[in-house]
Amino acid sequence: MTATMQPKSEAAEAPRRGKRTPGTGENTRPRRGPMQFGHWWWALPGIALVFAIHYVATGIGGFFAFTNWTGIGSFKITGWANFEAIFKDPTKLGALSNTLFLAFGSVLLGNIAGLVIALGLNRVLKTRYILRTLFFMPVVLSPLATAYIWKYIFDFDGPLNAFLTAIGAGDQAKPWLADPQWAIWTVLVVLVWSSTGFAMVIFMAGLAGVPVEVEEAAAIDGANLWQRFRNVTLPAIRPAVAIATTLGIVQGLRVFDPIMALTGGGPAGATETLATLVYKQAFALGNFGGGAALALVLAAIILIFAVLQQRLTRSNPED
Amino acid sequence: MFRYTKLTLLREVGLWALALLFLAPFYFLVTTALKPDNELFTTSALAPPTSPDFSNFVDVLTATGNSNVVMGLVNSAIITAGSIVGLIALGSITGYVISRSTRRWSKGAYYLFLIAIILPGQLGAVPLYMGARALGLTGSAWGLIILYTGMLLPLSIFLYANFFRGLGTDYEEAATIDGASKSQIFSKVVFPMMAPATGTVTIFAGLIVWNDFFTSLIFLGGSANQTLPVAMYYYIGSLVSQWNSIFAIVIVSMIPILALFLFAQKRFIQGFSGGLKG
Lengths: 319, 278
Hints:
The complex is a heterodimer of chains A (319) and B (278). With 319 residues, chain A is mostly helical.
């Protein structure tokens, strides 16, 4: 789980709000000279650690994207050769399209499922908190453990095929994870399963902020269920949609653990993603330069989609 | 208007059915783990065991060497707790300073942290590993605690900074008038007030560190201090399609986090939605 790119997200929710002058950012702070509270150097250890672990390491890695370094020994600067190789290699382009498919597929399905469950659990249900806990359970499991469970379910001797045989559809039984056509769908199912609960709680929190009176008024005015959802509920939970989808896309684009444990990228690259390919190139195949170039491409894609997503779903323009 | 009607009952029943289907993987997990070896291939994958057997769990808990699960539990607990402490200490103070400072650099620092959250880790993994090895930080719990603290610090700072932005300065002003020093204000006034943010950071960081596999695999490689996911990975690596044994260790590995979640589920879910709400 990572957080969001929405700078103001907590501001509206934090308890014990103090007095705030209108306007945003800098203007709201006291004007009695700089740094009234705390010393600026208190931030130094944190900044230094983040700078070293994130920026210096990433910068060095980024530099090697333009070399033919193997991970040890000497290297030559090769310019854009690694990037040209990526866009000429069909396996790498395949991994790119798999990455996008899994990221958008899991975000779409996970958020729809999360929204439907959140709407279902919204208001008057007696057991809503028990149900919420149950639907959230997969979120706290480690991706590794989750992947092992599903690996068995999709196993040839596993429950899914046993179920298909039991309902008389035994001819549909197949080794799901080893089937080039189906393997990526099984990965998608696992990703959706483990992210639905997360989307659900974000939507439930958003729905809790929709005033009952407005919904009632709409109902009295004769709006049907769909109209009420479309015109009252949806606009009110737009911030929640923005958060849930942005997070999902950033997470989905770099998904690694479940794929490694489920299929290892196979069969024949059918479930390979950029993240698994980066790992294989850099750590297993001794092509660190190529792996770093792929990682740079992945980083660029994540940044682009994160920014786009923020722009598209931003709740109100002056934010 | 929104009363409990027959339709609501129907909705409730439907959601329960959906929940049971959604949690079916847990059914297979438990029933398979309880099957003795001979039942694994003789009974249907859908059927519960005819004679439940706990020997798989005994095997898991007595495994030694790389796949020593008890050792893994202890190491994971130490590393998770250490990282949480580091993230709260550094995250709170850094988040506080950058959100209270009116200087221009504080905004730059804020975006520095924001971008760090979405950088993919693989790019820096090899340089980071070489740096950690040069400093003698690989293979030890300390090294991993420092590493996790650094990796998750942008997230922690981000959560704290957003929390402070919504918090007025009245209490700090009052404490200043009463003659408190800057460090007293932070430790006695500000830190207790940010308990909600601290809760969110604890839950996020705890979950990520406890469940992380990739980082500990690489940075603890070959040492005796394996974390739980790595111990599980090695244990399962020695089994081929022995699903009953595999699931026994999967269950053992998920019991601590699942128990904690069920015990404090309100806090967990609040932490998730509260820290991220728009």
